[in-house]
Specification:
Layout (H helix, E strand, L loop, with lengths): L2 H16 L1 H21 L5 H21 L29 E2 L2 E2 L4 E4 L10 E2 L2 E2 L7 E9 L14 E4 L8 E11 L5 E3 L3 E5 L5 E2 L13 E2 L13 E8 L6 E5 L9 E3 L8 E16 L11 E4 L6 E6 L5 E6 L5 E7 L5 E3 L6 E8 L5 E9 L2
Parallel strand pairs: 2-11
Antiparallel strand pairs: 1-7, 3-6, 4-5, 6-16, 7-14, 8-13, 8-16, 9-15, 10-12, 10-14, 17-18, 18-21, 19-20, 19-22, 22-23
Helix pairs in contact: 1-3, 2-3
């Protein structure tokens, strides 16, 4: 937790402690504490007992305030080893990396020079939501002079402070702000969790991560705000073992929703600043909805014309197949009494599949290879 978060939490704690009902509760607890200890230790002075009592109660209250631990290190990009002076320097923000070779996700900081200062960026002015730093990525490109560039995307990746546990719910949140001087706004941005660090490489940087993000911005959550910050949030039920998070747009050009809003001719893309990223444990799933790993098996893989899903659950699920650009190819419904997936209409190739329950929770995401 960074110093800004600690300061805000301390202020919350002090504000709560000043409330009359909180002070009354503390005094009542202190009286009980003093009375009990009078019987056990006559040599301790009452004033010392009062001090000890208050310290203990405040410590307990502080534990409640700090109980929700953010698993994202350097969540507001305040910690850095070098001040940014050019594009593509997200690695200067401690713990954050660029997973897509040849792309250039940006880092902005008050200590930065040129167009990578806060609040004065190459795209205009924008203050940070927290502190004096944030990241920035391209989420959409529409270059009329070079269409192959239209799948150019930028991503940022972080190793979480702890591994996500199977069946637990995690409240995921980050804030975005549209850069001023760009031609497009886009609603497509999300977060993807994985057990291993993901990297992609394209000599020209024109590549979309072939994954389905577990957290996505709702289509009706318009990301047009270029003064304040808009929250992207959701609840993710972990499949267990996830340690890495990637933020970006996982849709290709054809699948991305974007609107032209005008701007300089060189800024033929959508660009968003990112700040205050958090992943906080917030409960567990209903046991009836949990499918343990040893009860779920998808085989054979590679497959030919048929796929079998072996799982011990009476509920209905969906099996979805996507190409590597994120476009849905096929969708099937199944349960444990009808668990064969017909692949006769799916061509040879490498795909991504997801299994979701009736609440659209993702149970499993993996690669599928089909060889006819």
């Amino acid at each position: 937790m960074n110093t800004g978060s600690i300061g805000r939490s301390m202020n919350r704690m002090i504000t709560e402690l000043r409330k009359p009902d909180q002070m009354k509760a503390i005094k009542r607890s202190c009286k009980k504490y003093i009375f009990r200890n009078k019987l056990n230790n006559y040599n301790m002075k009452i004033i010392n007992k009062k001090s000890k009592c208050l310290i203990i109660l405040i410590f307990i209250f502080a534990q409640q305030v700090f109980g929700q631990i953010n698993l994202v290190p350097n969540p507001s990009f305040e910690q850095y080893d070098t001040c940014p002076y050019n594009g593509g320097q997200i690695q200067y923000a401690l713990s954050w990396i660029n997973p897509a070779t040849y792309s250039t996700p940006d880092y902005f900081n008050a200590c930065g020079i040129g167009g990578h200062n806060v609040p004065n960026t190459v795209f205009g002015q924008q203050i940070a939501r927290t502190g004096t730093a944030y990241a920035g990525i391209v989420t959409y490109t529409n270059n009329p002079n070079w269409p192959p560039q239209n799948n150019a995307r930028e991503y940022i990746e972080v190793l979480l402070n702890d591994t996500l546990e199977f069946g637990k719910k995690y409240c995921v949140s980050f804030f975005v702000n549209k850069a001023d001087s760009v031609q497009y706004v886009s609603n497509d941005i999300g977060a993807y969790f994985s057990a291993v660090p993901d990297t992609i490489s394209s000599p020209q940087g024109y590549y979309v991560f072939p994954y389905i993000p577990q957290i996505s911005n709702p289509i009706n959550n318009l990301l047009t705000n270029d003064t304040g910050w808009t929250e992207i949030s959701g609840i993710y039920v972990a499949t267990g073992g996830e340690k890495y998070m990637i933020i970006g747009n996982f849709n290709d050009f054809a699948s991305t929703s974007a609107t032209f809003v005008g701007g300089p001719s060189w800024a033929y893309y959508g660009f968003y600043y990112i700040d205050d990223v958090s992943v906080i444990e917030c409960g567990t799933t209903d046991n009836s909805e949990i499918i343990t790993k040893n009860k779920l098996n998808v085989f054979p893989n590679p497959a030919k014309n048929e796929l079998i899903i072996d799982m011990e659950s009476p509920n209905k699920y969906s099996f979805n197949i996507f190409d590597l650009l994120g476009s849905k190819m096929e969708s099937f419904s199944f349960d444990n009494s009808s668990n064969k997936i017909d692949l006769t209409n799916v061509s040879d190739g490498t795909y991504i599949f997801t299994i979701t329950d009736h609440k659209e929770n993702k149970i499993k995401t993996d690669k599928l290879i089909i060889i006819k």
